[in-house]
Amino acid sequence: MRLSKMHLKTLREVPNEAEIPSHILLLRTGMIRKLVSGVYGFMPLGWRSIRKIEDIIRQEMDQAGGQEIHMSAVQPAELWEESGRWFAYGPELWRLKDRNGRDFCLGPTHEEIFTDIIRSDVSSYRQLPLNLYQIQTKYRDEARPRFGLMRSREFIMKDAYSFDRDQAGLDRSYEEMYAAYEKIFTRCGLTFRPVEADTGAIGGSNSHEFTALSEVGESEIAYCEKCQMAATVERAECVDAPASSAEELPLEEVHTPGTKTIEEVADFLGIGQDETIKALLFVTYDEEEKENGYVAAFVRGDRELNMTKLINALKIPEHSIEFADEEKMGAATGCVGGFTGPTRLHDCTIVVDSELPGLRNLCAGACKTDYHLKNVNYGRDYKADIITDIKTLKEGDPCPVCGAPIKHARGIEVGQVFKLGTKYSESMGATYKDENQKEQPIVMGCYGIGVTRTLAAVVEQHHDENGIIWPMSVAPYHAIITVMKPDDQTQADLAEHIYNELAAAGVEVLLDDRKERPGVKFKDADLLGIPVRITVGRGAADKTIEYKLRRDADKEEISADEGIARTIEIVNKEK
Ligand SMILES: [Zn+2]
Fold first, then answer.
1. What is the C-alpha separation between 529 and 137, in angstroms, rounded?
2. Is residue 524 part of a domain?
3. Cα–Cα distance between 355 and 389 in angstroms, integer?
4. pLDDT tens for each residue of 448-457
5. How close is the Cα of 221 to the center of ligand 1, in Å?
């Protein structure tokens, strides 16, 4: 491809709304183009890289026994009502009506559609197992789209669904997909980590998230350097503090004026924050978005509440709970903002973290302005509706597996795999007849990869202050030939010769034959990040060129023939 003919518009300035490197660089290289907030189009170079990522995914999915299909992005509401997700998915589901008022959505995921196909097409155990996938545009009506392709409202995803006869079959399918994902992300040039994850709005029993490590990532992971433990912070289990054998002291009301926070009350009473109970107050909503109850959650004072664990404990969708108006909740339940404890509360769901019942003589709010209670003990002084782990595993906390101090890291979620089990097949009636002619629910798994987000993650991990540094495998082109003076016939002829030789050998090559100053061309070549750069300049008369890899600082003067040979070799090795 000749740059003089290519539709390419690079930007010198950093666009205002772009905050992170991938967003800035994908806009500056002209690879993506914003249409409206969270919705992007792809220009020639960007689309080539997207297609390379898709090709890698297709090859590995096919290798693992997947069969590609393509379903519509438009999905009828009826199927989502059957699975119970028309409500559960919440406001991120992009809903629309047709001219007759019938409800549809633009699919953020396709469990319902694939389950619907399978329930009509599969009837016998002989037809299982099966793995179907698609690479398709998905929609999520994000409240705050940001970071370019990282959190967008329209995005390209690969989603695969496995259908098995039983749990053992699902375990095998899951392992195959897990292994395929490791190959895919490795081939894309990503440094990543598979971590245990929450199943969220997709549901099911087990899940792993594939996280590309990056400081700008929105996924926070907890991991252990001593053992294999690695999980999203949302999911990571927490070790309870050891139970106390101290004697229960008498409950005592103490005057603690103005001490609204845990820090203030602990300082005031001269006790540790780990000797207090922290309260967090919520209101929940029903399907009509009407308030339908209050929730008080309690963790040890020095802990942090884990919202995902609380939502899972309550078995409600993420969007149906928010912080309560304390005054309103106080009138209904007896809580008092800043002075709420688990005693003296009524008419609300009390969720208590699993370690609190084992601890003795804690300090908690007295549900009375400017007062706390000392020596609060579970059983004697308060009871819970739910007792479970609702605390966050923090950096430095003991590893739940081996006890070593936990570390945190940030990353970009580029893929996630789920063991769905029979969640969808049971709610939607997808069954097969086993060897004994007995109806059994089909056991399902689902497996997603964010294609556009993977592109952004690659840029996050491969760039410098001058631009992108593409790994060969997903680079829009393998090599770029920069001609210093295209009007100089010797230079033009040599460049043309190299261009033809490389193209004939299967190298995807760009020829920068634009009538621009050399400085502009070099800047653009660095910005675009094409892995191999060959510069044809004054040495053309002696058939020498300058050879440079984008990832290295060194450049070398070598003969054109050697430059061609080296380029072909490195491209074949790394593409
Ligand atoms: Zn460990």
1. 27
2. yes
3. 8
4. 999 999 999 9
5. 14
